[in-house]
Write a structure and sequence with these properties.
Layout lengths: L3 E6 L14 E6 L12 E3 L8 H6 L5 E3 L10 H6 L3 E3 L6 H16 L2 H9 L20 E5 L3 H11 L4 E5 L5 H7 L2 E2 L2 H7 L2 E4 L13 H6 L5 E4 L8 H9 L5 E4 L10 H5 L3 E3 L8 H19 L11
Parallel strand pairs: 1-2, 1-3, 3-4, 4-5, 6-7, 6-9, 7-8, 9-10, 10-11, 11-12
Helix pairs in contact: 3-5
This protein binds NADP nicotinamide-adenine-dinucleotide phosphate (NAP).
The site of NADP nicotinamide-adenine-dinucleotide phosphate (NAP) has 30 residues, from helix 5.
């Protein structure tokens, strides 16, 4: 087979319509295989594969890394820039799916879904009781969105249907979002003090890493709920486990962790958590669109054109 030699994550194979790969000579690379040396001109990695200076040294012809995710913290952008390697991501196509999953976590935490399921399945349910598994009433409660970008705003728009008030923290104001939802912008600390549910949607950067820690958790309302569907590194996991153990935090709904697939043992054992295996964008339609967006970026750059969705740090 002839064509541009490209590396593509093998796990994406069944999601990509073969005709989209016309003109590409694909080497399918499993997640557990190291990045090989070679004259590959493009790579479509999963977010679990680090692409940095060492990898780029082994790939002297590389022209584009088309990450199959909207986050791109697995790519060393400085090293890429030095080599003039284009980096792209897959924004927008996964916004709705990730916002939906965020709401699945909010509802599961607020209404103690897992405790209810466990009670029924264990045979321990002894009938309707007015005080059984009382949860948080979302109607009239306040949702705090940390990072009101694409996904944060989509989560906020869904909150209107649940009658929630909305606060958000973002580097720049979002007047359109405020107008559409009545959301009010706050600094992080006042937001944490005011909100009943806090949901994280900032990317992982040096500024956001560890932003939820012992000190900031202590600012949250007693019984508040923390949701994270962005990146695990935003939260100090041991500090979160302690806040749950001590009963200060009402619940935590997490889709992402610092050392995936490992989870801090104290957090895994902590009470009132809903822990998911990083499935924010996991619908078939979304995963297909993510893979196809990555391939379209590769095809555009190899054809000499601009990338469709370049990463803008
Ligand atoms: P986005 O549109 O770029 O939104 C990120 C927002 O964070 C931007 O509005 C940005 O503010 C804001 N921000 C950045 N640094 C900040 C800081 N220090 N303080 C406050 N706000 C800050 O990205 P997105 O498409 O919504 O995706 C967000 C993240 O979700 C991704 O980075 C990814 O890690 C994660 N994600 C996870 C899954 C999953 O499977 N669980 C799926 C998709 C995405 P400005 O607008 O003011 O610059």
């Amino acid at each position: 087979m002839s064509g541009f030699p490209v590396l593509v994550a093998a796990e994406l194979r069944e999601l990509i319509e073969p005709s989209l790969l016309d003109g590409l000579d694909v080497t399918w690379l499993r997640a557990d295989e190291p990045t090989p040396e070679g004259d590959f001109v493009a790579a479509i990695p999963l977010l679990s594969r680090w692409m940095g200076g060492t990898e780029f040294k082994r790939l002297p012809q590389m022209r584009i890394v088309a990450n199959c995710a909207v986050g791109y913290n697995n790519v060393d952008l400085v090293a890429a820039e030095m080599r003039r390697i284009v980096v792209t991501n897959t924004p927008d196509v996964l916004t709705a799916a990730t916002a939906d999953l965020t709401w699945a976590l909010i509802l599961a935490c607020a209404r103690r879904l897992l405790a209810g399921v466990e009670l029924v399945k264990s045979g321990g349910w002894s009938g309707w009781h007015p005080q059984l598994l009382l949860g948080l009433e979302l109607d009239g409660a306040t949702l705090g969105i940390v990072g009101a970008g694409r996904i944060g705003q989509a989560v906020g728009k869904r909150a209107l249907g649940f009658g929630m008030k909305i606060r958000y923290a973002s580097r720049t104001p979002k007047p359109g979002f405020e107008q559409a939802t009545g959301a009010r912008r706050l600094e992080l600390k006042p937001l944490l003090k005011e909100c009943d549910v806090v949901t994280l949607h900032v990317p992982k950067t040096p500024e956001t890493q560890g932003m939820i820690n012992l000190e900031t958790l202590a600012l949250m309302k007693p019984g508040a709920i923390l949701i994270n569907t962005s990146r695990g590194d935003l939260v100090r996991e041991e500090a979160l486990a302690i806040a749950l153990e001590e009963g200060r935090l009402g619940a935590a709904g997490l889709d992402v962790f610092t050392d995936e697939p490992d989870i801090h043992p104290r957090l895994r054992a902590a009470p009132r958590t809903v822990l998911l295996p990083h499935i924010g964008s996991a619908t078939l339609g979304t995963r297909r669109k993510m893979a196809e967006t990555a391939v379209a970026n590769v095809q555009a750059v190899l054809a000499g054109g601009p990338p469709l969705t370049p990463v803008v740090p």
